[in-house]
Specification:
The structure is a homodimer of 123-residue chains. The first copy, chain A, has 123 residues and is mostly beta strands. Helices cover 5% and strands 47% of the residues of chain A.
């Protein structure tokens, strides 16, 4: 449930509450989409989403996203959109803080269900 | 058309290209939503959106949003979601840079069509 409508939300305060890497938490909901924050460190898993495009904005640190034939490097204030069906592997050498916009239906590991798959909860 | 999928986009570089207040520009598209950046200064206009919830994230400066019975004050790194049908009046005492996430159908002035209404273009 979105109980945050018309309230101020401080990203830094929300990120302080996250104690696990690769475990995005919901901080807002609008138009069938979720706003999430996450801490990334290390390497995630190759995956794609069949029906969802994803937006990643770096709040702090450096996020790399490996694609099939190249690699994106995103620093603070940079974003990218990974369209549906694009294979991608996010990784971060140091702890990196990220804002994510994606449809409510999105599973973090996409089609690759494994031990990294998490149910996304409100923070 | 979204020609930015899987590319790095730097918010600060995009914002440098904006030379008019209250004129959001599109910098990304996903899941039927637009990512926009805007510079705000001064007072906008009271309005609401009948079918669209809006997300505002402050990149730089301070954004105030008057609501019917109170006022939000958002500083760098703060966001809010203004749900559909909520009357709101954005204003900024100094130049303020904002990231907006909203459905493609959104008109900047909502139901209040006037000289501030703009067709939103890609940056």
């Amino acid at each position: 449930m979105n109980n945050l409508a018309s309230e101020r939300v401080c990203l830094a305060e929300k990120l302080k509450l996250i104690d696990r890497y690769w475990n995005p938490k919901i901080v807002g909901e609008l138009n069938g989409q979720f706003i999430k924050v996450a801490k990334f460190k290390g390497e995630f898993v190759w995956h794609h989403h069949e029906n969802e495009d994803e937006f990643f904005l770096v709040i702090k640190g450096e996020l790399k996203i490996k694609l099939e034939n190249r690699e994106l490097v995103l620093r603070e204030g940079d974003f990218t959109i990974i369209n549906r069906n694009i294979q991608h592997l996010p990784f971060a050498e140091e702890e990196t803080h990220v804002l994510i916009f994606e449809p409510k239906s999105t599973v973090n590991t996409g089609q690759a269900r494994n031990e990294l798959t998490v149910d996304c909860e409100w923070l």
